[in-house]
Specification:
The chain is mainly beta. Helix content is 5%, strand content 45%. The protein contains 1 helix and 21 strands. A hairpin with a 7-residue loop joins β7 and β8. The longest helix has 15 residues.
């Protein structure tokens, strides 16, 4: 057999091993197959005391979706019937972004941001509910704000309890991810609270945002969205992660590079039809950790949709399943 023919046979054999459907990257698993209302952006999910799940997201007056099984989703309206009046201080349409839902002290807590594109004149607010369902929320006003003179941006909140204290990570561009301590009784920032710096990038415009912090074992894990969202199939969002033994950092990637120096392990990137994966959060379901995020569906004109994958752990680092 000539060398040329041998090479052709080897190429044909290798091609037979490849999937028949073209994929941009075969290293990432596809999200859980879903049905019903899948359109969503910046999802936050929680298991309700009454059973089933609720997901809140950017869009509407904090759009709501409900499901009994994580697979079949129904549109449930909005968290609020009308925007609270103070939202209009930060944009002319009363449009909130990037909510975060949690449960403590016998109530559900919903944090969210109000801002306008391209400015850090922003605010994070909070509401509470006895059930966590849309239409039951009572707004309690501002938690923390930023102005154009600040080097951070008060959007994309995420709440975590650590060592008996309550913390909120937040941030978008403007030097990246920050954190402040909250008063557990009010859910708002402590007066004069230190603004801790958790992650950034060395290159302007410091495109890292949407933090979420999870405790697993002895480490705190900081998940964040890198690069650009909100451009449909042209979005370049991806999720990276680092970890720390203390809630305020320093957070390092698996090579030991600080996230404050541009470090971060790549957890999930776009692949195939699932473009621009980001806006992530983590929740518990059936005793397991799940990653929720949005992607832009390349087979549906770049429509933002809900992605759900189980999170596994290998050598104390998260992996998407």
């Amino acid at each position: 057999m000539t060398r040329l023919r041998l090479a052709a046979v080897m190429v044909a054999a290798l091609m037979a091993l490849l999937p028949t459907t073209a994929r941009a990257d075969t290293g990432y698993p596809d999200p859980l197959p879903l049905a019903g209302q899948q359109i969503i952006h910046d999802p936050t999910l929680i298991h309700l005391k009454s059973g089933g799940y609720v997901a809140y997201s950017t869009g509407g007056v904090i759009g709501a979706r409900v499901s009994k099984d994580l697979r079949n989703w129904t549109d449930a309206g909005n968290a609020f019937a009308e925007p609270p009046s103070w939202w209009y201080e930060y944009n002319g349409t009363g449009d909130p972004w990037a909510p975060d839902i949690s449960y403590r002290a016998g109530r559900f807590w919903l944090y969210y941001a109000v801002s306008s594109w391209g400015t850090n004149h922003s605010a994070i607010g909070v509401a509470t509910s006895p059930s966590g369902l849309p239409g039951t929320w009572t707004d309690h006003g501002k938690v923390f704000t930023s102005e154009t003179t600040d080097s951070w941006n008060a959007i994309d909140p995420a709440i975590i309890r650590a060592d008996g204290r309550l913390w909120m990570s937040f941030g978008s561009y403007w030097t990246g991810i920050r954190m402040v301590e909250l008063d557990p009784s009010t859910g708002k920032a402590l007066a004069g609270a230190t603004v801790h710096h958790l992650a950034t990038r060395p290159d302007a415009p410091y495109a890292v945002e949407g933090p979420y912090i999870l405790k697993h074992g002895r480490f705190y894990y900081l998940f964040a969205s890198y690069d650009a969202c909100c451009a449909g199939v042209n979005s370049t969002y991806k999720i990276k992660v680092g970890r720390s033994t203390t809630i305020t950092g320093p957070y390092l990637d698996s090579t030991g590079k600080p996230l404050l120096d541009g470090g971060g392990d790549l957890l999930l990137a776009g692949h195939g039809r699932y473009v621009g994966t980001g806006g992530e959060s983590v929740f518990k379901a059936k005793g397991q950790d799940w990653l929720a995020y949005h992607y832009y569906d390349a087979e549906d004109d770049g429509t933002p949709k809900l992605g759900l994958n189980r999170l596994g752990w290998v050598h104390d680092w998260p992996v998407v399943k």
